[in-house]
Amino acid sequence: MITVELQTVCPDWPQDQGHPLAERCAAILGAEMPEVSGVIALRLTDDTELQALNKSFRGKDTPTNVLSFPADPFSTPPGEDLFLGDIAIAYGVCAREAEARAFPLDRHLAHLILHGFLHLLGYDHQSDADAAVMEDLEATLMDRLGYGNPYAGDEASS
């Protein structure tokens, strides 16, 4: 079972959307990968914070939609649920991307949450082969959420 600890620090995020959507994403991922168990910290924030994190950790001085920070598996104290890592999502970037593609914010947010979850589990898109695996899994998970394939049609890779 995957547990999500949500922190919404940007007031622009719809207050009633983040936690239920994050829990649905966690449940869908847990159903697809029942062997995965642990805690994920999800921070719904703004472009300024994502830009600072992107600059600090990736050397890119620009806001991005989502960043994932996998935890050291040995950092979880004995007897506690395994901490899988942190995910931060920027409201402004997410909202602009959703608007540009003409679909609801919750659809794009779900995709970014799942994308971040998969990064915490070791998936990546550095090579074409790795990207294909990750995107296929994202498409499956998004379909199970009822949103359809995020890579079909007009949505580009996140």
TrEMBL record:
<dbReference type="InterPro" id="IPR020549">
    <property type="entry name" value="YbeY_CS"/>
</dbReference>
<dbReference type="GO" id="GO:0008270">
    <property type="term" value="F:zinc ion binding"/>
</dbReference>
<keyword id="KW-0862">Zinc</keyword>
<keyword id="KW-0698">rRNA processing</keyword>
<dbReference type="GO" id="GO:0005737">
    <property type="term" value="C:cytoplasm"/>
</dbReference>
<keyword id="KW-0378">Hydrolase</keyword>
<protein>
    <recommendedName>
        <fullName>Endoribonuclease YbeY</fullName>
        <ecNumber>3.1.-.-</ecNumber>
    </recommendedName>
</protein>
<comment type="similarity">
    <text>Belongs to the endoribonuclease YbeY family.</text>
</comment>
<feature type="binding site">
    <location>
        <position position="115"/>
    </location>
    <ligand>
        <name>Zn(2+)</name>
    </ligand>
</feature>
<feature type="binding site">
    <location>
        <position position="119"/>
    </location>
    <ligand>
        <name>Zn(2+)</name>
    </ligand>
</feature>
<dbReference type="GO" id="GO:0004222">
    <property type="term" value="F:metalloendopeptidase activity"/>
</dbReference>
<keyword id="KW-0479">Metal-binding</keyword>
<keyword id="KW-0255">Endonuclease</keyword>
<feature type="binding site">
    <location>
        <position position="125"/>
    </location>
    <ligand>
        <name>Zn(2+)</name>
    </ligand>
</feature>
<dbReference type="InterPro" id="IPR023091">
    <property type="entry name" value="MetalPrtase_cat_dom_sf_prd"/>
</dbReference>
<dbReference type="Pfam" id="PF02130">
    <property type="entry name" value="YbeY"/>
</dbReference>
<dbReference type="GO" id="GO:0006364">
    <property type="term" value="P:rRNA processing"/>
</dbReference>
<keyword id="KW-0963">Cytoplasm</keyword>
<keyword id="KW-0540">Nuclease</keyword>
<keyword id="KW-0690">Ribosome biogenesis</keyword>
<dbReference type="GO" id="GO:0004521">
    <property type="term" value="F:RNA endonuclease activity"/>
</dbReference>
<comment type="function">
    <text>Single strand-specific metallo-endoribonuclease involved in late-stage 70S ribosome quality control and in maturation of the 3' terminus of the 16S rRNA.</text>
</comment>
<dbReference type="InterPro" id="IPR002036">
    <property type="entry name" value="YbeY"/>
</dbReference>
